[in-house]
From TrEMBL:
InterPro entries: Reg_factor_effector_dom_sf, SOUL_heme-bd. This is HEBP1 protein. One of its GO terms (molecular function) is heme binding. Coiled coil: none annotated. Signal peptide: none annotated. Belongs to the HEBP family.
Length: 140
């Protein structure tokens, strides 16, 4: 099922073609010279998002990512490969008391700069285009 998107990604996406999302570095945490994480602020932008709720957290992330890859690799109203932006963001959801994680996660893809004004519509109705306000993200 993912053979075509993976082939498309391999054909069309060399490392120099990956667009890094513009951000402001707020904090960088290292231990013994190894990067543990960065705290980044991303500006207001449009993202393609999918919320998944599988039995296992890892399944939710994998299935959400696969669906986004289909959108990126031509299953969109433009019929074109959209290009990769990095990182792909995973949002972990908590219960109302914010005391524990739920099984639900949101996997999100930053739409490349050239698509921000008019993003292609996804064929998959589970994927929605959202405009996020300026956002803080922890990256590993």
């Amino acid at each position: 099922d993912m053979a075509e998107p993976i082939q498309q990604l391999t054909r069309n996406n060399s490392p120099q073609e990956r667009q890094t999302i513009p951000f402001t570095l707020i904090q960088r945490k290292e231990k013994l010279g190894d990067l543990l994480y960065e705290k980044r602020q991303y500006g207001k932008a449009k993202w393609a998002c999918i919320k998944m709720k599988e039995k296992q957290y890892e399944q939710s992330i994998c299935l959400g990512f696969m669906k986004l890859m289909r959108y990126i690799c031509e299953q969109n109203s433009s019929g074109l490969y959209l290009g990769i932006t990095i990182p792909i963001v995973t949002i972990v959801h908590t219960n109302e008391a914010q005391s524990e994680m739920t099984q639900a996660v949101t996997v999100a893809y930053y739409l490349p700069e050239v698509l921000q004004d008019e993003p292609p519509h996804p064929f998959d109705s589970d994927i929605i285009i959202e405009e996020w306000p300026s956002t803080i993200v922890y990256s590993r």
